[in-house]
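Task 17 of the worksheet. Students: predict the tertiary structure of the chain below and write it out as structure tokens. Keep your answer in the requested format; marks are given for formatting as well as content.
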Amino acid sequence: MSAIFRILARTPPWIYFVILGLTLVVFAHVSFTYSNTSGPSVMPRDPRDIAMLVLGGLLICAAIALVFLDHSSKVIPSSPTTSTPLAKEPPDPTIPSTGVEVRTSFHGFSYEDLIRDSKELTVVLNDGRSWIPAHRELLRTRLATAGVVTRVCLLHPASPYLTLLVHKNGKDLAVQVKEIRGSVSILNSEAPAWADFEVRGHDRPSPYCLYLTEKLAVVTPYFFFEAGSLPMLLIAGDSALYGEHRTDARKLLAEARPILPEPITSAKTDA
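Model answer:
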């Protein structure tokens, strides 16, 4: 019996209405046919009696339908009517929702999402001696990924600014040039020939490090003197300041020139 109830409960309601309607039409047709004939008949002849029979049939069908619906709701529980909202992706903790976020130190900041997930990545550094080796594995994966653009701009080994930089950091000029060349060598060794990648060198003083994606600009400004920790600005892509840094980076890349891979011993010998 339960199987019958399941079948009836799964049957679309319109089918029942069609069957009921056809039954009433046949009943009415037969009734009117017999009402026009002579002789005894078990069928009603008065139209009012026919109407009462039709109305009674409708009431009986409605009662049976209520019984079936009540039983089917117990056999096949209805699904909840309240919809569950779609889960939203958690916001990227490295990207401010809007405007500019200022951090007192770059320590603890993860560049992984920037390197791994961005379609466009522009990195501007002095020599990259710490950042590039520290993120070599991530950069290798990125450079081997089709459809992403990667641009790195360092101080050119022949930049006249190097003399001021070594005066600040206390390095020997040859050591500073070697560190730049080392960063270039790492990047070139990890980039496939088909990668949309370029490393260039500029001659301008560097006021900050820049890590620029299509959604975020991460800026680490320099002090006049060496400091173990630098502040950090996270600039969302909807900020006017983001647009200024993006334009500034494009101008710098356009002005910069390729850094030749062959090693040199002095900044003055690289044209």
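Marker's comment: Residues 47-75 form the longest helix (29 residues). The radius of gyration is 40 Å.
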